[in-house]
Amino acid sequence: MTKILVVDDEKKIVDIVTAYLIAQKFEVEVAYSGTEALTKFYKGQPNLVVLDLMLPDLDGNEVTKRIRQDSKTPIIMLTAKSSDESIVNGLKSGADDYVVKPFSPRVVVERIKTVLRRVTEEQVEKVLSFNKGQLKIKLESQQVFVCDAEIALTHTEYDILSTMATYYRQIFTREQLIDSTRGIDYDGLDRMIDSHIKNLRRKIEDDSTKPVFIITVHGRGYRFGGSKDE
After folding, report:
1. What pLDDT sits at residue 181?
2. pLDDT digits (tens, 9 = 90+) for 55-70
3. Does CATH number 3.40.50.1460 belong to domain 1-121?
4. pTM of this prediction?
5. Helix (H, G, I), strand (E, B) or coil at 197
6. Which fold has domain 125-222?
7. Distance, CA of 143 to CA of 139 (rounded, Å)
8. How does 92-131 read in b/e, with b if 16+ C-beta sit within 10 Å?
9. What sequence ranges are listed for the domain Response regulatory (predicted)?
10. pLDDT at 34
């Protein structure tokens, strides 16, 4: 059974989201603080985390950063702050998606299902290799290696990179990259993609200010710049 960890310091929100998830046959664990969330995450190994931004001890961004140190488990951030800056900061910390409060529990459940489908979608077993093995992408296991060292990416970062690398001659608009990770009906932000691109460059480029793999095409979007190995 798929396990979801729900983290919020408001018991009413936790109870409502939990009830909807149980009705959809999910197993649910709950936590009411950042510290408790980390303890239950490492002990219970959930398939996805629903995480409130404003927690009484460690905030959601800090919890996300700590999880991202060694895990790609998808994280959906709950935030009462609807500003672009707040959302972008959450995505920078490693969150895969966000839901702004107040929200419909049904929307949260559907977001969870969408993210889980994206994570578990079967891919053809294949390894993409670029620049004489400097960058390798294992599509089936969703692993990324730079100079044979595995790099931890969020699911969204991985989806962007694998999409661009698979169609490495194509220029992608921000809207196309949003579609590749969220679906065509997702109401995303252009700045969200820019934030993920910045994180990707920091992780896979030797010098993120002079990118080799993720190239900006001014006025159009991005393209993959690696040279594919035969």
Report:
1. 73
2. 989 999 999 999 998 8
3. no
4. 0.56
5. helix
6. Arc Repressor Mutant, subunit A (1.10.10)
7. 7
8. bbbbbbbbeeebeeeebbebbebbbebbeeeeeeeebbbb
9. 3-116
10. 95
